[in-house]
């Protein structure tokens, strides 16, 4: 049965305001694991870049922190250019070993890892970000890369899934995301017939625009019948996730996230990819992620429930966005998960 994955990329920077503290118990685990996206291996504009300067990998200390919060799933973004220096060449052992170290550390903590190829259907080559299907970068190159990755990780017991591509967007008609995904699925299944494969939607994986941009993904074929779909939702006016303006200027309202997710959920229901609970309902999703300069503490207090993720979808999971402290993006020590509720 095909499954569903809803990734609400919520930049939780608001929770760094006024030194948030929480004495609340960890998030209660129910059903599929609730997770966090540990960004840092995908950072930097230099490729492959210098390790621990341009980019790094999460550590066991990061895992320990989130484990204490009750989170069991780690989404690990990584870059194609760093794992494979030359197209169809061998994998870069340095970065491969760093990834394996994290996966092994997660296993010891009874945590699972979703490997996320964070390339937007592009690869940096010839001093530019080249779109797959252009200038010698082919669908076969992507499929070959995923086969190499799957071969390395197929024996790990705590790989939650292979995330084929983060947020495909602005593709050419001649090279569709469907074709890229199908070729990657086929290549992975030649070496790994068990691990779940996560397929993001086209057009930045938009949940709101899913039917217009990603409807054809329902026709993907997996010999192992173990696919999941990944949709993203942002709450600012243009749905870019940049959150440049105030709550009012971004035209936010409490149900905005709900409205933007509905098309994806309806698509899942119509295509019967999974069983929904009988009383399907949406809790309030309050737009978050605004920069502290544009959000006041008073707004935070008024909202009370910062984030209520957990569409009552059996088998569904949710992941929020967070960066380890090394990146300087967010001070995790100020991050409170007391308002994240998994239903």
Describe the structure.
With 343 residues, this protein is an alpha/beta fold. It is built from nine helices and ten strands. α4 (139-153) runs parallel beside α5 (177-189). It has an eight-stranded parallel β-sheet with strand order 1-9-8-7-4-3-2-10. A two-stranded antiparallel ribbon has the order 5-6.
Helices and strands in order:
Elements: E1 3-7, E2 35-38, H1 60-68, E3 73-78, H2 80-83, H3 93-108, E4 112-117, E5 122-125, E6 128-131, H4 139-153, E7 159-163, H5 177-189, E8 196-200, H6 202-205, H7 210-214, E9 227-232, H8 256-271, H9 297-303, E10 319-322
Parallel strand pairs: 1-9, 2-3, 2-10, 3-4, 4-7, 7-8, 8-9
Antiparallel strand pairs: 5-6
Helix pairs in contact: 4-5
Query: Would you list the SSEs in sequence order as H and E?
Result: EEHEHHEEEHEHEHHEHHE
The proportion of residues in beta strands is 5-15%
State the helix count. 9
Structural category: alpha/beta
Rg calculated over all Cα atoms:
19 Å
Shape: globular
* Overall pLDDT score: 77
Straight-line distance between termini: 22 Å
Helix percentage range: 25-40%
Low-confidence stretches: 6-30, 275-315, 325-343
Q: Let me know the number of strands.
A: 10
Largest sheet: 8 strands, parallel
For the largest sheet, list the strands in their spatial order: 1-9-8-7-4-3-2-10
């Amino acid at each position: 049965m095909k499954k569903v994955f809803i990734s609400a990329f919520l930049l939780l920077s608001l929770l760094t305001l006024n030194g948030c503290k929480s004495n609340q118990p960890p998030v209660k685990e129910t059903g599929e694991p609730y997770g966090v996206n540990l960004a840092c291996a995908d950072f930097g504009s230099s490729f492959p870049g210098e390790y621990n300067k341009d980019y790094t990998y999460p550590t066991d200390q990061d895992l320990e922190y989130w484990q204490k919060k009750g989170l069991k799933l780690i989404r690990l973004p990584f870059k194609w250019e760093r794992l494979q220096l030359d197209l169809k060449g061998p994998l870069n052992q340095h970065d491969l070993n760093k990834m394996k170290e994290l996966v092994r550390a997660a296993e010891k903590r009874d945590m699972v890892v979703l490997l996320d190829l964070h390339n937007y259907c592009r690869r940096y080559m010839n001093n530019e970000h080249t779109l797959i299907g252009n200038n010698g970068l082919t669908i076969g190159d992507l499929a070959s890369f995923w086969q190499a990755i799957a071969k390395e990780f197929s024996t790990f017991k705590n790989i939650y899934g292979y995330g084929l591509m983060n947020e495909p967007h602005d593709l050419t008609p001649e090279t569709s995301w469907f074709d890229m995904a199908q070729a990657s699925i086929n290549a992975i299944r030649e070496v790994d017939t068990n691990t779940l494969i996560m397929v993001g939607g086209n057009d930045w994986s938009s949940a709101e625009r899913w039917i217009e941009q990603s409807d054809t993904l329902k026709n993907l074929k997996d010999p192992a019948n173990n696919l999941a779909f990944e949709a993203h939702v942002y709450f600012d006016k243009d749905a870019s996730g940049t959150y440049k303006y105030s709550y009012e200027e971004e035209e936010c309202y409490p149900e905005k996230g709900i409205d933007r997710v509905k098309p994806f959920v309806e698509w899942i229901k119509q295509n019967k990819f999974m069983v929904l609970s009988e009383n399907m309902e949406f809790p309030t999703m309050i737009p978050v992620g605004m920069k502290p300069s544009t959000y006041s503490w008073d707004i935070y207090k008024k909202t009370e429930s910062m984030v209520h993720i957990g569409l009552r979808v059996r088998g569904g999971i949710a992941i929020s966005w967070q960066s380890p402290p090394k990146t300087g993006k967010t001070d995790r020590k100020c991050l409170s998960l007391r308002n994240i509720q998994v239903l």
